[in-house]
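To make the argument concrete, we let one protein speak, a sequence paired with a row of structure tokens, as a model reads it:
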Amino acid sequence: MKKQFLSFAAAALLFPLFSAEANTEHDAFLDAEKTARYGSYQEFKEAVEQLEHPLKPYVEKAYWQRHPDIEHQSEIERYLTIYENTPLEWPVRKAWLLNLQKQNRKAAFINNYRETSNSELTCTFLQYQLDLGAPEKAIMNQVTDLWAVGKSQPEECDPLFNTWRKKGYMSQALIWQRITLSAQGGSQSLLPYLKTLLPKNEQYLADFYRKVRSDPSAAAGMYRYKNKTAKEGEIAHYGIQRLIWRDKTLALKAWEKLDKMFDYSDEQKADVYYTFALALASSGHPEARFWLSKVPKDRQDRKLMQWQLGNMLKTRDWPGIIAFFTGKENLSLGQQYWLAYSLEQRGDSERAKVIWQTVAKERDYYGFLAAARLGLPVELNNQPLLVSDKLVADVAQAPGFKRAKAFYELERFTSARREWNYLTGTSSDEEKLAASKLAAELDWYDSTIYTLAQIKAWDYVELRFPFAFQDLFERYSKRNHIDVTWSIAISRRESSFAPDARSHANARGLMQLLPSTAKYVNKGTVSSKRLNQPKTNIRLGTEYLEYLKKKNHGNEILATASYNAGYHRIKKWLPDEAIPAELWIELIPYRETREYVKNVYAYRQVYHTRLGREGNILAPILDMKMGG
């Protein structure tokens, strides 16, 4: 039976989000918070004393962050003790420590310091300990850890580093360690300084490392290895693994010589073999299989094997796939599926059927494809969430949950997630399940989904695939002539139904629309605020799906890929000669888009079945061709 209910955010469009009582409570908090930010100490204290609200500690935080005054030391330290290891602690502690540093209150600073990634505060902490007579060796060992990193440290650390160096703790091994860290992914701008710390006869190595970092082909210049030392070998080892991604022919030739020139360990050679195999397989290079055979079995992970599978699928090397994957343990569902496919192509239908029957039991893209091949019903493997009412009630009363809930109701989603992450990060798996149930009751979909994923609770299908904003998805999908399972699956994959989701590329909202895309579809600029509104986002997202479907002549697979990678890029990926659609999906050049299409179609099937619809939505893929 089709489920119909009004979602939390959609309902907010029709009637007030909270009751009058809840609004009054939140108004009281907002007023007190404003007083804490801009009022006097006396006004702040009065506001706190009168307030009864889960976010009362945040009113105190707002004041102490701005006024970490020495005269209130006992109050501040009491606050820090009460809220230690919560999201409330660090903003206040940092402000307090910086003020103690400014006031040169060494003993108080040491007493209030807690381990942090803030190097400035850590250096101050170590310096103050030295000043007050702490054992030198214990302190200097910690200074070593601060110095030996691949980036510059704040100037506040310089006096401590100078003392450390004068005391003889700097060694050539540490200098080389820092050069390596800086060159291999750290800040290469640090290398000219580190070069001056090397003996004169080794200073060329820092220049060489920097050269290889910017131009890996320098590693192929055999004339550069003047002394054939272990350090030169390290640079070559680093450079050749970068070069294979840029110039495969040059890298392969250079390695033949470097392997003989330097006495590399088995582990170092395995690093090169793995990188070469991955780089060559991902580009379909004919020597990929040779290098894969050189990778030790314990390094042949699924990523490497998947690229090799793709390489063999491109050439329809069915015997090769059978020979390579038969008998291997821990094959992914995709590898099992294509092994069966290869067996079928070679006429061994019985063995193929046995493998497909196993795969078809899984709630997965390949499981649904295998079920379609065998004419079997799809398996959702859903489990009801069974958790004690008492535990749910206990979690509901936890201060962290109350704070997260209040922030969520105030639509301060970042703060809500910070509190939620603290709550679930300090909870048992059973408590996480209880928290997930509570989040689901609030229609806080993304927190439910992420928390269940955190504990690998994959089979609570109804919670992991909710009918979020269902009325809006149905309304606008119908208006734009697309299937609602498609639009809701896109949103589930894009944002896990977080209305305020924002990507690194600045895509926004439930369906992760770029402002430029929204402007094109809307025929006018759409503000970021409006893009975060479910109604606007779903309206424009479904219009865009309809547009892509028309551009791709009704092909929803191509439209799905276009939604992720762009229509013009997808056109370039279509082969001149028609190939099976399932093979085309498997050979999509971009891993992100390849997995995106599979996930969206798997999610579509889940929603298709959850809506009470019959059949396998992936079945048409088996008879479809791409290109040609």
Summary: Residues 1-20 have pLDDT under 50 and may be disordered.
